[in-house]
Every structure is written in structure tokens, then in C-alpha cells.
Amino acid sequence: MTVHRTVELPEVTLAYRESGPPGGPPLLLLHALGERATDWDGVLPDLAPHHRVLALDLRGHGDSGRPGRYGLEPMRDDVLGLLDALGLDRVDVVGHSMGGVVAYLLAQEHPERVGRLVLEDVPAPYPRPASPVADPPAEPVAFDWAVVRAVKEQIDTPDPHWLERMPAIGAPTLVVAGGRASHVPQDRIAEMAERIPDCRVVTIEAGHLVHHARPADFVAVVAPFLDPADRID
Description:
Number of strands: 8
Number of domains: 1
Distance between the termini: 29 Å
CATH superfamily: Alpha/Beta hydrolase fold, catalytic domain
Order of helices and strands: EEEHEHEHEHHEHEHH
Mean pLDDT: 96
Low-confidence stretches: none
Helix content: 25-40%
CATH topology: Rossmann fold
Strand content: 15-25%
Number of helices: 8
Largest sheet: 8 strands, mixed
Shape: globular
CATH class: Alpha Beta
């Protein structure tokens, strides 16, 4: 059963969906730009059946608040605020694309709060050529379009500190790369992964949306990595 909940933080209300055994180890799922918590529904039943799963709507997305101030660091701080509000000292984290950036920023800044880390086809923090941001679509979308401009600017010109601090990630890390069909440079993902002390890379030739395009393969790789019975850390 999935329960819809909210947490009030000083700057924003965060919405999240909770499922799984209440006493299980907590797992936080962080979606990509323009998505929401329901983005994980296709893999959720099999991804972490023993975990208490919290699928978050990041600020500006889904049912969470739209405070007008957006960026990857504020999203990281929101996640920390959520953990504090729920009394969770340590969680496993799975992040896709933008959500993966938020996840590795959290793991850098607060390594003691992240047990295991999964990064799904995450843009590595290397500068890339800027491209224009499209105008908002005519039909309503389930996120604030201002998020696109703010996040894209940071992904195009990342803080050099992000790359420098990759060795600060203490969590065992699994990087799931999308392969040749992904628009994310795969060589950069590999370079980023080499900087994380305890990290392995698995490529699933699915493109950027790995858990959508090949959900069974995604689960087959990620579920054993998250299984509490298989870990020694």
C-alpha cells in the first residue's frame, strides 16, 4: 500500500509517497527533471521489497511546493530536511539524472547519512556547451518551468567543487549508465565514477531512461545491491 504524505520545511512543503514495510531500512527515490514520485511506479514493487520506500517530489515538482527559488543545492538541503523531519539518520538513495546529482551532492556533504547510493545515468559535473531553454509548453505540466532554467544552468556550468568532492562519498555506490543511446556523455560518467572510492559501473543499453526502457534489467542490477541480506557494510 502506498501512502501520500507531506512534510513542512521552512521554505517549502515536500510531498512524498511511502510504501513497503514501516520497519524496513529506508530507501529514498529521487526523480529526474520534470518528473515526480510516480515515475518509479514501474519498478517499485520489485526494486526494494524489504525497504521502507520514500519516493519524493522534489521542490517545484509534482505535489511539492513551488517556492520560486530553485537549484540543486536547495534540493539537496530539502532532502536533508526531510530526513531530519522523519528522524532518519541514514538512508539508501537512488537518483535518476537530476535526482542523481542531488543524491551525490547529499552523499558528499553528509556521507554519514547515506548507506548505499545508486546513480542512474547521472550527468557528471563537467562543463558542457550551453543550449537554449525551450519556452514553456502550451499545456500545463506537473512542475514549475523555472526549475528547468535553474537546473540546466548548473548542469551546463557545474560548480568545480562537485567534482573535487567525489572522493568524499563514503557510501558503496552503483552507477547505472544508459549506454550509447543516452544523451549523457558516457565517458564522463565513467570518469566521475573513478573518483568515488567504492564504486562500480554497470551499463544497460537503454538510453537515458533506463528504468523505463528496461525495467527488468534495472531491477536485476539494483535490487541485489540494495538487498539488506547481501551487504556487509
